[in-house]
Amino acid sequence: AIVVSSLEAALETAQTFPGDEIMIGGGAEIYKQALSLADRIYLTEIDMTVEGDAFFPAFSKEEWRLTGREDHKAGPKDSAD
Q1: pTM given for the model
Q2: How far apart are CA 16 and CA 28, in angstroms?
């Protein structure tokens, strides 16, 4: 693991590794900071309402182009689609 103190430092560090994509694994505040830098979102939506105080930041879906979608029904051990 490499520990850094800011999103900017994390992105700079990530660019030193091979590959053509940097993935952001939030929490809510990290997602909020990084959303304006993103050119792709892999978004998982779960069909249920849950209590909580941290959420993915609001964004305009009209500003994005859907390039793929997979729907999955709840399995025997799942509580939601």
Answers
A1: 0.77
A2: 25
